[in-house]
Structures are given as structure tokens and as C-alpha cells.
Fold each of these.
Amino acid sequence: MPPLPGSKTFRYSVDMLFALLLVAAAADWVPARWPWSDPATLELLAGTPVNCLLVERPAWDARFNRQARIAGVATLGVIREQMDPVAATGQAVELDFTGVVYEGDIPHAALDEARKVAARADRIVVELVPRTSIRLESTDAILGTFQGVWPGINLADDGSAKAAPTGSPWIDTNTGFLRFLRAMTEAEIWLGNLPPAGTVIPLSRYLQAIADAAMVGGRWIVALDADFAARLARGDAVAIEDWRRIGRHLAYWQQHRAWREYRPYRGLAIIHDVQSGALLSNGILDMVSARHTPLRSIPIRRLSDEAIAGAKMAVSVDPAALEPEQKEILRRFTRGGASLLSAPPGWKFPQIQPGQISVDKNEVARLDDIWRGVNSMVGRENLGVRLFNVSSMRSELVAAAGGRPVVLHLVNYADYPVEHVTVHLLDKFEKARLLAPDAPPKTLEVYPHGEGSGVDIDLVRNVATLMLE
């Protein structure tokens, strides 16, 4: 017999249903930090997919939250480590926020007490914590961190581009550790890094930040620099057009959100874990990705025959951490004709320091032992795709379940378009279509190349995606 309306059981069932629907909706939230409390600013969201606003304590306002809810926009109150998380959560509930974001290095015990307050009110919780404090086994719909590098070509003091181990310009990117997180959890991954303080950010750098996370299945929480926000608030025409273009790029990834479920195609498997630097930027994943070698991150605890299937080569960063059954998986992998590189005997990644988010110079030198081995093992072999004239780019090769379509994401970190990109694919394809946020789809010619296929791309501005079938 179903519960009677008005009964305690009925109310509990309704509350549970509401909570489940809220969690399901959270997976499709497109978040942005919102510095305003005036409901009129919600008009800026028109024509964009942004549907979730992170609001700092000074701008908390119940009237704004009510108007946002009417507009179909979720609001999350940001609670920082300097605040009492329990009291602040109670206030956020009273002001009718959809949920709360705990941001900063907040002790887990304090977080857990505050989360109880949010749970009793059926509020969504997002933790933006240090990378090493992310609860990787959590059942939360969204996991995140406030720690990220600002994506782009790393410049020396004289304005010239620093060189990566490959000799190409060094690109600061969050894709490496985001690949690891995506391999560790089914949760949505939010990256909450802010623009460098006191800096006016050109539009191209915002588009790079969006794509840097999106091409590996994450979401950057849009955060405008103070100058941009001020110009946007007063209706500056250039700021409004730039905001609309940001919206178009967000919409591009949201319209193709099925890509987030695609998995790495062929390529090189990196077997590692938190203790071997998987949560750090500029580590082995980022070094290898600078070669445009197709990559898959396999956390040690997720290593299985299925996880490594399809890879042509693998690197075991910390072989001493493998259990006997995991070593047997790698033996089966090599018996199938694949290659395996293990870190040198006795090699150990240095202990990660509190607050560290990037591999430092001394650790880069230690990683050279592995990097040289990877470079020698891969050589000029095609592990899925080889790219030419892409020194200012990063790429990601993924495929839908069943292996088709295959998707190649290209993100350009230069502030100028790149022309004449050549794509050599290991496998044979018959159709190729080029997609981009600011251009209509374009059918490209596929030509034979060796035992695989080739495709030429005339121009990549900021972002392009090659769909292959």
C-alpha cells in the first residue's frame, strides 16, 4: 500500500525523490562564479548554458536565490575555510540556496559536521578542496578542487616560450591530473582555479581554460577577472560580446556532453597513483601528452584487463606498489604483444608537500629517467594518431563504447590561429567531420596513409574536434 499524503512516510518519500532529482540535475550544471546579488544580472545568462552560480558570502541574498530558481538556475553559497562551516551552512539553507560549496583547506571533521546540516535540508554539497584532500571514494555527484594552474603557454621573464622536454613550447595545463581523477571516479569533476590576481585576462585565455578541462571530461568553473566583471556589469559592448563568446564555447561542450563518457582510444597507458604524482601538474602525463601521444590514466587500484585493453604500450610508474594479481595483469598484457616500461629499480617519487600542485624542478629531473624510457619506447610509432604542426596545442583521442565514433579534440593555447594541421591515424576511417564552437561543421577528405588514414585541417582557432567514422 503506498504511503498516504501527509504522512511521515509520504513526506520522506517526496524528500528522497527531490534529493535524487537534484543530484541528477547537478551532473548537468554548468557553473560560474557570480560576484553580484542583483537579480537583474541573471539576464546575462540568457543565451548561455550557465545554470549554476557560485556566490560568495558578501553577495548572499534570498531574493536573488528566489529569482534564480524561477529562471531555472541553481545557486550555491560558497563557504570558505575562514568561516564556521556549520553556522554558514545553516545560513545558506535559510537563504534558500540550492546547495553549498565548501572551498579551501577545511578539516574533514568540520566538513562532515557541516554536511549533516546540508543533508537534513536536502541541499547539494560540493567540496572544492586541495587536490590531495579530494575524497576519491566519495559518492558525491560532484568532486572538485580550487587548485589548478592557469592554462596557457608558459613564458620566460623575457617573454619567450619556455621549452618542454619535447622541445616544443611548455604549456601549463590541468589535463594530466584531471585524466587521473576521471579514471578514478564517475563523479563530475569541477576545477575552481581563479584568474591570476591583478591581471586582465584576454578572451582567448578564458576559452583555453574552458577547453583545457572540457576535453578530458572536466568542468572549469567560469571565473571572470575583476576588470572583465566590472565592464560586464556596466554593459560595456566588448565585454558583453566576449561573454557571449564564452557562452558559445560552454554551449559547444554542453551540446556534446556525450563526449564526457567517451574513453581513451588505443595509445599509451600510464599506471600510477597519488603517491607517484598523479595529482600533480607537469608530471609524467603532461610530459607524454606534449608529444600528442594518445594517453590513458590507469590508477593502480583500477588496473584490470579491461582498463588496459586496447593500449599498445604501458608505463608502470611505481611497480613496487603493485599487488601480485596486478603484476599478473601486466604479464598478460605483454604476452599479448604489448610493450611495458617500468620505473628503474629503487626509483621513488618524492613525497608530495602540503599545498603542492605541480612537479618542481628537482622532481622533473627525477622524472627524466622515466621520460627518456618513454621517449625511446614510443619513438616514431603511431599509437593511435600522430599530429603535425601542433606545437601550441594539446590533444585528446577518445572513442564511444564500441569503438566508433572516434573523436580527436584539439585545443590551441596560442593567441593566434594555427594553419595546416596534419592528422595521421593508425586505423582506417571513411568519414571525417570537423566541429568548432565558432564555425559550422565541415566535412573533410580522408585519404589513405600507410595502413591507416590521413586528414588535413586548414585552420584551428581556439578549439576543434575531428569526428571520425
Amino acid sequence: MVGSAVPVTEKLRVNQVVSENTHQVVVRGSASVPDPKPPVEKILSTDKTAKIKKIELVPNKAIVEGTLTLQIVYVAFEPAQSVHSMHAQLPFTTFVDLPGAQPGMDTRGKVTVEDISVSPHHGNPLKLDVAAVLSVFVKVTEMRDIDVVTQCPSGATCETERLTVSNVVASETRQVIVSDDFDVPQDKPAVEKILDVNATAEITGTRLIKDKVIVDGTVTVQVLYVAALPEQPVHQLHRSFRFSDFVEVPGATPDMDVRVDAVVENADVEPLQAVCCNRLRADVVLKLTAFVSEPREITVLTRVSGIQVTMVKLRIDHVVGEGAVQVVLRDVFETPDPKPAVEKILSTSVEKTRVTETKIISDKVIIRGYVDVQVVYVAAGSDQPVHAMHRRVHFRTFVEIKGVQSGMDVEVRPVVEFMTASAEGCEVTLELVLKVTVKVSQSLQREVAISVTPAPTPTPICPPGQTISYTVQAGDTFWSIAQKYNTDVNAIINANPGKTPENLLPGDVISVPCVAKG
């Protein structure tokens, strides 16, 4: 490609990838069968999920803390061989080597359960031995403003490439306090003293309006406390509650992309003063950081010859493609025991929308997930009490995106656009319209041109002792011509009788005597 006279540049604000890496970790531990569940004879199935709770950057390394959550279905060790289920959590801590990473940079992480083994503990059927293989991925980025050359300069030969990048329009941070008053669960004793509080936050939904990002999320607090009993045993309880807030981001519009990170900066749980130890108040300080971006296609120069240019290594997430699909979900079910039958439905609301699995095949992304719905209704009884029930609706769909391949990064955003519920007899019918938006990207590393160094003006050739012919250019004077050829003004005037500074015109051909050196 041969270029234009003036180099053209465009400014990009991108999340430059500093480092990324994957580390495998083996998590081993034991889970106790909770009282009053019977002991275990045989494991039937294990549903497993892993979640990252915290990523802390130290120089060239990330410390990752997370939780492995298990839902285990088993046959009881008793004559009736009844089937039961139990819930267990195992914490894990590991590190990922990330050359170049420094505290304060942005991080994104993902953990996948690659394999798991759960078996009854030898000699103790009330314990289970757990061994899991986790794959922990961490990417470190830093926001940078880069001016890239987009057109080949004049006199150069260039190789170009067309990239689609997520150009960061703006990013803003806001600190918020979310609070919740709640009762100690009935199966737990009252609280005498709080020993420790651990809190995590999860963003469940984002919505863009002009100059603002609306954020929905869930905070989960785990409380370790001394019970108000004579023997003062130590107990643990957890509480999850939802929050909704916003971050002002000037320049944001509804059609842009948004990512929000939530970091727990502080968490306190205290008994309410007016109620004796059975009612608690949680106050959690969150730092919400919103990144608003939009896809942008840009041409970059990856190789330039013929002139001097400054190249820089651009390491970014290149957007391979985007797509969306609408899915209609219909679920018919009976009211769960011991809930009464429905006479009239008052309201429906979405509690959580989650993607549980994504899989890339050639030119297609397969998505699995679920929507948790709450239905508030009037019961079919003489006193017509109001009840609420919860229902999980699973979905499976796919989005076609040309060029996607296994191993690329997938970002999925499911949004419930419409929902309705109706009841007839003992049956409740839920209908939802779900929009699933998918963006596929891959890490890309390229050397790109960011500036052009002007070529030095060559010194005109004027052999000493000779006289050359020169064509006058616009703006030339005898003095400027003498400076160009390092000669004397009077020598040029004497060599061109009849030509004066007043009648020197562009296009005239004059003689220029070259000064002999030495």
C-alpha cells in the first residue's frame, strides 16, 4: 500500500492487556453431613460451581481467593436407603504468575471446575472427602490512550490490518453503602458476639441510560459469631440481599457496552440495639467501577518501509464478532408444597439471571443458563392470604457469529425483556421473553505505527566550481536560493543579467554558480 501526503492518526482509549495466564490448582478437603441428615452410603450426583471472591495484585503475581460450592445427592446409610441432598462449600487460595502486573491495575478472573471427586470418608459416613481440579484464569489490563496512524504516509510502503476494538468511552467509580436488617435463622441460636464478617458482591444486571449506568447486584455476608448460650458455641450464618444503584458516566448512551466491577471495601454486622440479639444489621461499603465502551473498527499500520516511524506493541482484546437472539420461555408447574393454590397473581419479578455454561463450536456460541422468578399471589382460601413462591426457569439457546472458534473469550448478557404469569386451577404458567447478547473476543498482539518521523530534507547537489540550472519555485528569492545552495547572492545576480529580485517569477530558469571549496 502506497500512502497519502499527510499521515492521519486516530486516538484510541483501550484496555491494554499487561499480562494474562492460567493456573491449575487442586482443592482437597472434607465436608460434613449436616445435622439432622443421615450418613452417606453412596454418592449419586454432584453439582459443582466455583466462584472467585477476591483477586489481589502484587508485583508480577495475582493472589486469588474463591469458593467451591457443591450440591450433593446421595443414598443414605440406613435400611430404607432414602435419597437426600446436602450443600457444602470449600474455600481455596492460589496464585497466578503475571509478568508486568502491578498493584492498582484492573483485573478480570474466571475459574472453571475441570474435574471433581466426592466419596464417603473411610470409617466415618458423616464425612465426605472432596478433591477438585480448578483452572484459574486471570487477565490484567491498564487503560491507555494511544494515537495510531491509520493511513500510509507519502513516500512509504505499508502493510495494514483492519481491527475491531472496544474503545473505552469513559470510566467512573462510585462508592456506595448497602444495608440490610435481617433476623437470625430460626434454626440458629441468638447472637452474643460477632467474631468475623466476610462479604462478597456480585453484579447481576446493568442498564445504560444517558450519562448513567444503573447497577443491580447481590451482596452475601457470612457471619461467624458466639451464640448466646451457656456453653457459648461458635456458629455461622449467611445472608444475601439485593441492591440497586447507579454510577454517573458522562458520554454514556443506551447503545454502548458496559462492564461494572464491584469490590467490597468494608463490611460490618452488628446486633440491633432495640432487639435482643436475634436481629442484625449489615452495612457493606462497595466500590463500583463502570467501564463504558463501544466497538470501533480501525485500520492500523503493522509494517512500514521507506520512512522512519515509531512502532508500539498493541495488546488488546480484538472483538471477533457480536450477535443477539431472543428466546421465548414457557414453564408450566404446580404450586410447590406446602404453598396453597393460586386464586390471583399480583406480580412477577426477576430475582436473578445467570449463564451457567458457554460453548463455542464453529461459527456458533451455545449458551445455557437460568432465570430465577418470584411470583406474588393471592391464595385460594377464605381469608385470601398473600403468598410468594420462587421458580427457576432454565434456558438453552445459541447465537451465530462468523469466525468464532473454541478457546476465544465469550461475554454473555441475558436480559428479561418481558414476563407474564397466569394461573388456571392448580397450574401456574410463566412466559418470558429473554434477549441474549453475545460478544466474542480474543487477545491480539500487534506492532502498530503511532507516529511518523519526517524525513530530513536532502541538501541540494551543487558541485563546487560549476554552474547549475535552477527552476524558480513559488516564494523563491535570490537570497533563499543562495541559502539553499550555500552560495553568494551577488554571484547569482551577476550570472543572470536582466533578472532582478522584482521580476523573478515561478518557472524562470536561472543559473546558480556553485562556490568552490577550499
